[in-house]
Amino acid sequence: MKKLILLFFTIFLFGCNTKSYNTAYNDYYKNQQLYINALLNNDKKTQIKALKELIECGEYLNFDISTYKKKYQSLIKTSQKKVKKTSYFSKYIKIHSTNPLKITIPSNNIKHFVIKRKNIYKEVIDIKNAITPKFIKRKIGNITLKIAQFNKNTVRIVYSSNKPFYFKYEIKNNKLYTYLYPKTTLTKKTNYKKTVFNRKKVIVIDPGHGGKDSGGIGIGNRYEKYAVLNIAKKLANILKRKGYIVYLTRKSDYFIPLKKRTHYANLKKANLFISLHCNIAPKHITSPRGIETYYLSPTRNERAIEVARLENKEIAKLNYLDQRVILNFLNKDRIISSQKFGIDVQNNIINTLRKKYKYIKNGGVRPAPFWVLVGTQMPAILIELGYLTNPLEVKRLFNPTYQYYLAKGIAKGVDSYFKKNP
């Protein structure tokens, strides 16, 4: 009897709800989102669970689920292979990167404190029961990082500078991550009206690339990662003054994997996701210029695919089957919402800039398979703000005044979208 009750609750909680077509379709869509996130986070157990329910729902709905069955079978085979178990956890910390700092630690037993003296600012972390294999000293801008053995059982990490800086850290799965960036002041002091439609709306802005990934390198050896970060900060300031809740995926020059950017937006329960980039023209295109906005969707347009390929380098590790599965999961309603959002933003950028500048080309709104937008649970767009290979546009993209008006146009587009879609 107990086994029957347990079986009933297992089916009720985890099986596909086939009471009606609508309930089965809702379960099918929920598991699509669950599987995408699990795939991007390399969570095999959740992938198997989501695919199992997708297949069940798909069979009831009479959908073509052959691709999902293949993926499910391959995951089951992999999971059945024996995995070697380690009987101990090394006390040696393993350093993966220094900017941002990422190290494997023996446990979450750490101590953080701050030292402030005249012209000295220090953020200190002590890792207990740990040993570091070597002394490390790195210069990160005007901040110095030191990692050393403080005593027999403690490794000490020290960030120091003669100027104030922001610092934060987090621990995930026995890995310590630290982030730092200089304190900055807001530039424009324009007062914006806070209206009903933008109250409590959450916007996540993603400045593309960063750290080891410079993005495009244009005329005059100018890096994409710096231009988009400055524009993102200006956009964040404008939106905050309008009453929006705003988050940046990165606030300084450090690298974040594509999958973590959208995962961050989902964690913040964002209403909109905006990824900022600059374009690089292929050699066969002469005199390239213009601003283009993209939303996630399969496409056969060669130009859109070519632009997407440049931005998708990091996700190329995903095999063809995984890429097909993800693109098959794209929800039509979200594609339509993203397209509408893209149109509002593109129109407002062009109209705002044309009031101040000549030779502003409208590159339009297009679908493209940008992987940075995969996994978002909200309308999401990627804006190519101009060409680093165009002599006029590259100068403008690094000009603070032009950056401000670009940001102002995007913010107007956000307002316009929420007015139409409250």
TrEMBL record:
<keyword id="KW-0378">Hydrolase</keyword>
<dbReference type="Pfam" id="PF01520">
    <property type="entry name" value="Amidase_3"/>
</dbReference>
<protein>
    <recommendedName>
        <fullName>N-acetylmuramoyl-L-alanine amidase</fullName>
        <ecNumber>3.5.1.28</ecNumber>
    </recommendedName>
</protein>
<dbReference type="InterPro" id="IPR050695">
    <property type="entry name" value="N-acetylmuramoyl_amidase_3"/>
</dbReference>
<feature type="domain" description="MurNAc-LAA">
    <location>
        <begin position="262"/>
        <end position="415"/>
    </location>
</feature>
<dbReference type="InterPro" id="IPR002508">
    <property type="entry name" value="MurNAc-LAA_cat"/>
</dbReference>
